[in-house]
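Notes from the 1:1 (GR / supervisor)

We went over the backlog. Supervisor wanted to see one worked example end to end before approving the batch request, so GR pasted a single chain during the call. The sequence is below; no edits were made to it. Supervisor asked that the structure be written out right there so they could see what the output format looks like.
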Amino acid sequence: MKRSLLASLLCLAACRSETEDAANAAAQARTAAEAQVRRDLQYLSSDKLEGRGTGQPGGDAAASFIRERFRSIGLEPAGDRGDYFQAVPLVGTETQPESSLSFSGAASGITPRYLDDFVLWSEVQDRSVAADGDLVFVGYGVVAPEYQWDDYKGVDVKGKFLLMLVSDPPSPTNDATFFGGKALTYYGRWTYKYEIANRLGAAGVLLVHTTASASYGWEVVRNSWARERPFVKLEPGAPALRAAGWLTQEMSRKLLASVGQDLDRLFEAAAKPDFHPIPLGVTVSSRVTQKVREIHTQNVVGRMLGSDPKLRDEAVVICAHYDHLGIGVPVDGDAIYNGCVDNASGVSAMLHAAEALAKSPTKPRRSIIFLAPTAEEGGLRGSEYFARHPPIPAERIACVVNMDSVSVHGRTRDFTFMGAERSTLHETTDAVAREFGIRVVPDEHPEQGSYYRSDHFSLARVGVPGVSLHPGSEYESLSLEDGKKVFTEFNEKHYHRPSDQYDPAFDMSGIVQVADIALEIATRVARADALPEWNAGDEFASVRAAAKAKQ
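Structure output shown during the call:
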C-alpha cells in the first residue's frame, strides 16, 4: 500500500509538473506571439512608411515587408509568375484646386468653393475633363425591382447631371424586408449611385452629404477625395462618368433654395415609391483638372497548400488590406495618415494567423490563401482586381475571412461576424464562437453599411461568401461603458485622420485573439466536406450558381 501510495504521489507530482510546464509553454508562446504582432504593427504604422499610400514608396515598402514575412513563414507564392506579388494595373487621378463647379440660371450667383463646399473628380482617366448638363434630382437614385422601387421611372437621364441622396430609401418601421430596414444595403452606397448613373449614360453625379446619411462627417469626405484616388485601368472604349462629386448639406440647401426647392421636402418626396425625377432648371458646368499617372502597385498573395490531393485546388482566403491614405492634408501639423488600426492591425493579425498555421503539425484539406490587397481605401481596387483574376477559379474559393480594423485594446467577450448570416458560413462562426467562449452580437451600426466597405465584398460580387471579423465592445480589460467609448472615439477623432497611429499602450492580445478566431474559421471550412452555400434569395447566390453551372 505504501508503494502504491508513493507511486500515486509521484505520478500526481509528475502530472502537475507536466500541466505547469504546458501552461508555462502556452504563456510563453502567447507572449512571443504578442511581441511579434507588436513589431509588425509598429513597423507597418510607422512614419517611415508614410501612411502606406497606394503606389507611393511607403505602400511599396509595406508590400515588400509582407512578402518577406510570407517567405519567412513558409508560405508559397501565389501571385504572378511564381512571385508573391500580383500586379494591379491602376490609374491614379488627383483633382487639382483649379477644378471648378458652376451653375447657370437662377443659381448662377452661387459659387461653391472646392473642398469647403464640394469635392469633384472624373472617372475618365484624362488630365482635363469638362462636362455640362441639366441638373435633375433623382431622389436616392435607386432601381430595385425586388423592392418595387424605381427612382427614374423611365426618364432618360443621358447627358444629365444627377443630384442624389446617399443611403437607402428609409423604412418607417425598420422593416428588414424593405431595403434591409435599419441596415444599409448596397443600393445605399455611394459606389452604387455612381455605377447606375454611369450605366444610364449620365454626364455626372453630385451626392448630397449629410453626416447622418453618410455615417461620417464632411472632414472624412474632404480627406478621402482631396487626394490621389486609384481606379482599375479602363479598357479602351469603356464608359465612365465625366464628373463625380459630393456637395455639403449647406451648399445643397442653398442651391435648391435658389430654384424654389426645399431640401427637407425633397427628402420627404424621395422617401415615397411614387417619386418621379425633378428637373431643377439649372445647368451644371464642371471642369476637372487632374494629375493622372499609371500606378504600379500590387496585392501580396501567399498560400499554404492543402493536404488533400483532391481538394487542395480549392481554397479559403484570409484577407487584410495593407494600404492606407499616405501623406495628406495636415491636421495639427501632422500630414502622415499612419493607419495603425485601419489597417496595420488587420495585417498584423493575418501574419500571426499565417505563422500559427505554418507551425501547426496538421494542415487542412483545402489550401489557405493569405491575401493582402492594395488600394482598399481607394475603393477596394486591389481586391476587385484579385476577384477578377484569382489564382484559382472563384467558384473554387470556399469563402473569405476578412480582418479590417481589429482590437488594439485587448480581448473582447463579444464579436460580430459580419456577413456570415448571409450563408451557411454562420454555422461555422457560431461553432467557433462557442469554442472560444465569445458571444455573437449583431452589427451594432448596420446603418453604416460596413459589409459593403471592405475587401470581402469584392469577392462576394463574384459569388464567394465570406465574413468580416469585428470585435465588440465588451472588453476583458475595460468596463462596458469605456468599451463603447472606444468605437465612438475612434470613429469621431481618429478614423481616416493622422491620429490613427501606434501607441505603446496598445494591448496586442486582441489582435492575437482575432487572428486565432480567423484561422479557426478558415481551417474548419478547409476541412469540411462541402463548401459554404449562400442563403436562398441572397443577392449574390445567383452569381455563385451561375459560375457552378459553367463548370
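Supervisor's comment: The chain has two domains: 36-74+307-549, 93-292.
Batch request approved.
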